[in-house]
Specification:
- This protein is of the alpha/beta class.
- It is elongated.
- The chain starts with a strand and ends in a 5-residue tail after the last helix.
- The strands form six sheets. Strands 15, 16, 17, 18, 19, 20 and 21 form a seven-stranded mixed β-sheet that branches. Strands 7-6-8-12-13-14 form a six-stranded mixed β-sheet, sandwiched between helices.
Length: 801
């Protein structure tokens, strides 16, 4: 639809300007017409015709290219153009037209906004439909009028032409499965239409194209009927294209030369054009000369838009224009924008070769018609509005790279679980639970009296004393989180303590380590006899739970905490299993772990079988090969440590102290944060305190988190059936991109004000964050918040229309 309609008519030496817009609003101005303007235009027209004197797309005057003459017509043309445009602009910038110029300029400027943070401005062009009378006035290059440049505009002002007479409504739009183009090639005497044909055929992927017209050896007498029949084709057309010689006529609407010595008048094919209009013809382009009367006639017949050349046009200029015009049209610009872009190319890139050529094209349109535009179809069209802009793509690439870096993943996960701890505390959704583990810690105070040479590895005599004291608590399962893979002189005392616990029916589970060859190396015999004791590998990711890939995988190597929880759950079942006493005479053919797993596999106890069937999802081991821990269950540090385990110093245990509460059925003997703790290097078993644990421990002086505490969390979660699965940030970033693009597409206010978007995105981020925090508790799913929200914000910004 047109924003403004501007009528200009001359009465003697006065020009009347009438600007109309909205509903019944208008401004009128009168301006004296300078006689010099007509003289300057005629001088320019003469220079133009003399320079482009051959190979014109009007009546044949010769052939060939632009040739040099005794007079430098190019210099004459450039000078004539400058003189005419200077006078033309000076006239149009008269004070009498200030009201009209400012009214149009106001629409092209950003609206008055009160939001201080608003930075967006409208980008849709302002369309002015211009009607000029008499014909002498219509010949002027009104499209070159730079309206309102003195006001500082943010929107383009486009001038199109409208005939004085309009007796038909705009041609109706018709939806087709594929665009249809009729290309009429007229008399090519002195011309070359091969470039025109190739340019039109460049739209073959977007349209069905049919060529009709003159060919050497063809009967010219039947050509009129052939062209008329093609125009009136029952399937209809979207675009009508004509290349050839043409000219103006006073009454018959212009003439088209379709064959040597034969022309067809627009009036003659008017009935066929009306049929084509009724069948959906939207746009016609006449890449030929002197088309003012042609355009007036076609728009008067009801055709929506017609592009013509107002003056004679050189063959090569017509080809350059058509190539650029169709290029922009194929990029889904509307016909008006495509024409302006083509004219800009002629002005900036070809002005030295083809001076003044940019002033010749004009677009005529019906005021009620929407500028014609190719409508992309197919999957690429559906995807385009959802694709990011270049800046967004770079930002998304950066966010994606961040999401795949393990240190960033770990940092964001820790912050996410820390936020979950705060949310649990505020909403009082801490699950009531008693500790599952008594964590006996060999801490700095415990080892203060030991020989420094017997700290790493731990003094076996000291460890035997701790195990002996722990036996008195009568646990069902005792985990030893120390790697005892090398013999020492103190092994005898430890062997005695282990045998004593086994004879009392207590399962002992020792730490083992998985070597690069896949072999599990653990406690040496006779300390841990494989017939009566168990071992599990202690390698872990601090924030993640360790699970076997399949239930059968535990026969080869089994995670320490998982095996400890499985053994403790077995002892709670109706069919518990005791360690097998050592028999030096007839040793068992199977080790204790195989016997325990087979026993569990045969039991019908539901909690036990549920724990046995816990395993990593198939995708997790695959993702770990590329450094990603996708879908690996996490350790839920949002639960307070005092609900997971009780702490007791090994030194206090040896001094006869006992837990304040009833001891849990599992005792885990582990390091307590002393400096030398570690398997391959000192301090390896000491980690920074996770944010969530720090939140719960804010009243204590704890600064170190140990591997034993991580194993205690794992054991607790396995026994409680508590599993929290993190959804990969990259997956939700993809959904965030779709959601952000969807908001941009669906929200009518999204592209108007920055404040509206900021408020909307903030609200959505808040709702999503609260929903993710609650879903963690109710469904055991950890949804990342920061990176998906960042993607939604990136995509949600106004970019693609």
């Amino acid at each position: 639809m047109t924003d403004f309609r501007l009528k200009i008519w001359r009465v003697e030496q006065t020009c009347i300007f009438e600007l109309a817009w909205a509903t019944g609003l208008q401004i009128t101005a009168q301006l004296a017409y300078p006689a010099s303007l007509s003289a300057l235009y005629q001088a320019w027209q003469t220079a133009y015709h003399n320079f482009y004197c051959q190979a014109l797309r009007s009546r044949v005057q010769g052939s060939g290219g632009i040739t040099a003459a005794a007079i430098d017509w190019r210099a004459q043309l450039v000078q004539a153009e400058a003189r005419f445009l200077s006078e033309f602009y000076f006239w149009l910038n008269s004070a009498e037209l200030l009201g009209i110029r400012s009214q149009i300029a106001q629409a092209a400027m950003a609206p008055a906004l009160t939001d201080a943070d608003t930075t967006d401005r409208p980008t849709a062009p302002i369309d002015v439909c211009l009607t000029c009378e008499p014909m002498e006035l219509a010949r002027f290059p009104w499209e070159a009028w730079e309206i309102g440049t003195e006001f500082g505009l943010n929107r383009t002002i486009r001038i199109a032409r409208t005939p004085a007479n309009l007796r038909k409504t705009a041609s109706p739009r018709r939806s087709r499965s594929k665009l249809r183009i009729l290309a009429i090639l007229g008399d090519d005497t002195g011309l070359d239409f091969q470039t025109d044909r190739q340019a039109v055929q460049s739209l073959a992927k977007l349209a069905t194209i049919e060529f009709v017209g003159w060919q050497a050896g063809k009967d010219p007498h039947n050509l009129k009927e052939e062209i008329a029949a093609a125009i009136a084709d029952e399937q209809g057309w979207d675009i009508l294209f004509f290349a050839g010689h043409s000219n103006e006529t006073a009454i018959t609407g212009g003439e088209l030369t379709i064959a040597p010595g034969m022309a067809i008048l627009v009036q003659e094919i008017a009935p066929q054009l009306v049929k084509a209009r009724d069948r959906g013809l939207q746009f016609a382009i006449f890449n030929s000369c002197s088309g003012l009367s042609i355009a007036n006639s076609l728009v008067d017949l009801g055709l929506s838009q017609v592009a013509i050349m107002r003056e004679p046009i050189h063959n090569r200029v017509a080809q350059e224009f058509l190539l650029r015009f169709l290029q922009h049209l194929s990029e889904y610009c509307d016909v008006h924008t495509a024409m302006l872009q083509a004219c800009t190319f002629l002005k900036t890139d070809r002005n030295l070769t083809y001076p003044s050529a940019y002033l010749i094209p004009s677009l005529f349109r019906h005021p009620e018609a929407i500028p014609f535009q190719l409508q992309p179809r197919g999957l690429s069209h559906w995807l385009k509005p959802w694709l990011p802009t270049r800046k967004q793509a770079w930002a998304l690439a950066g966010v994606t790279a961040l999401s795949l870096l393990p240190p960033i993943e770990s940092l964001l996960l820790e912050a996410r679980v820390g936020a979950q701890a705060v949310y649990r505390h505020i909403t009082r959704q801490i699950p009531p639970a008693t500790p599952s583990v008594l964590l006996v810690q060999v801490d700095e105070d415990s080892i203060r009296g030991l020989d420094a040479r017997k700290i790493n590895p731990i003094d076996r005599t000291y460890l035997a004393q701790v195990i002996t004291q722990a036996q008195a608590l009568k646990p069902q399962v005792m985990g030893i989180d120390f790697l005892l893979d090398r013999p020492t002189p103190e092994d005898a005392a430890l062997t005695t303590a282990v045998r004593s616990a086994t004879e009392q029916g207590q399962w002992l589970i020792f730490a083992a380590q998985l070597k690069p060859n896949g072999r599990e190396v653990g406690v040496i015999p006779p300390i841990g006899n494989p017939q009566s004791t168990l071992q599990g590998q202690i390698d872990l990711y601090l924030n993640y739970a360790e699970l076997p890939t399949t239930p059968q995988a535990c026969y080869d190597t089994c995670p320490f905490a998982y095996l400890t929880a499985l053994t403790a759950q077995l002892q709670r079942s109706p069919q518990p299993l005791s360690p097998q006493p050592l028999s030096p005479v007839a040793p068992s053919p199977t080790n204790a772990r195989d016997r325990l797993l087979r026993h569990i596999d045969q039991t019908a106890d539901a909690p036990l079988r549920s724990l046995l069937n816990q395993r990593l999802l198939p995708l997790t081991p695959i993702a770990e090969r590329v450094g990603q821990l996708w879908l690996r269950p996490i350790l839920d540090y949002s639960i307070p440590p005092n609900q997971v385990y009780q702490k007791l110093s090994a030194g206090d245990l040896l001094d006869g102290k006992r837990p304040a509460e009833a001891p849990p059925p599992i005792v885990l003997i582990a390091t307590g944060g002393y400096e030398q703790a570690g398997v391959s290097r000192w301090g390896e078993d000491n980690f920074p305190l996770p944010l969530a644990v720090r939140y719960w421990s804010n009243a204590t002086t704890q600064t170190i988190f140990t591997g034993g505490e991580a194993h205690a969390y794992m054991i607790h979660q396995f026994l409680r059936g508590h599993r929290v699965t993190p959804i990969p940030a990259l997956w939700l970033m993809g959904l965030g991109a779709i959601g952000g693009a969807g908001l941009r597409q669906l929200s009518p206010l999204w592209n108007r004000r920055r404040r509206s978007r900021v408020i909307g995105l903030s609200a959505l981020t808040g709702f999503y964050g609260l929903g993710a925090l609650q879903l963690y508790i109710t469904s055991g799913l950890l949804l990342p918040i920061v990176l998906p929200a960042a993607v939604v914000w990136l995509y949600g910004q106004r970019g693609r229309p």
